[in-house]
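Budget justification note: compute hours in this period were largely spent on complex prediction jobs such as the one shown. Inputs:
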Amino acid sequence: MDAVERLRERFPDAEERSSTEVLAPRAVNAHTHLDLSTMPFTPGAYDAFIVAAIAHTRAGGRGVEAARRGLAALRASGVRTVGDVVADEAVMALLLAEPELSGVAYWEVIGPDPADAPRLLDQARERLQRFLSWQRPGGMRVGLSPHAPHTVSAPLLRGLVQVARSLRLPLQIHVAEAPGERALHATGTGPLRAALAGALRDWRPSGMSPVAYLDDLGVLAARPTLVHMVEVDEDDVRRVARAGCVVVHCPRSNTALGCATFPWATFARHGVSVGLGTDSLGSSPDLSPVEEWRAAVAMHGGAASPAQLVWSAVKGGARALGMRPETVRRGDPFDALTTWVAPVH
Ligand code: ZN
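Corresponding output:
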């Protein structure tokens, strides 16, 4: 019996009509930075974007006001479940108190100098324990985001993973996003090294790919959600599949910042679950996962079906945040569903 026949049997009185639309529960935005919502959309080279984001942060642009604006944009796009990277304590308090919002608020930690690791680790542990006391049943959960494999030193990465394990916190890390990230890890050279020269003064390359490095450090064994993952090869994807990590794909941000194209077919071949995220309003024109889905459909053409990508936007996103996907039951209001209309080529 095929799926349609099963539905006819279960719902014999339902009206039937043919359509090219998919109806599914609400989509999840599995990766964004709501506290960057007052940063203007800044497409262009990745390095220039990082410089602009740092300047915006130093000028005080990253905080509660920006997060409130981001929350309004998120709600307007119909999202109720989000994976948000948080860099401000007041934003953490805001998100954990937010009614009608679920998902994970990941506390961001940056620290490329190994000498800073013990201090930053103590600080992160103290903060995370405090944030956990603010969690409410049914609301957002506290998570932890070591920023990226090159902006967090090896001892700090290892320590943060231990803290996440002991406090049972979900992890999310930006990996293999930037052009030059592979060269930086392999040889300590290239455009990313040049762009971050001051910050990476005491950081040493491992000689491996960013993913192999995380695997070697024992980070992948903690099953972090890996965001972006565009500069990867088959060996990297095999390691991710073996560890059982979920990946978040942000096609519009990658295009806006001149990053490589996400190798959908390789991840599909290795059976890796993929969710969708918009990233921040600095690198994406809006926070809508439905628009992200549309961009992914256009980007991958025949390599990914629109229905597979709907799975990513709904169930893949929930899986990326360690949550059960939302379900819609008979009798639930219609606005609990999202209508997906595939673009006609
Ligand atoms: Zn991001």
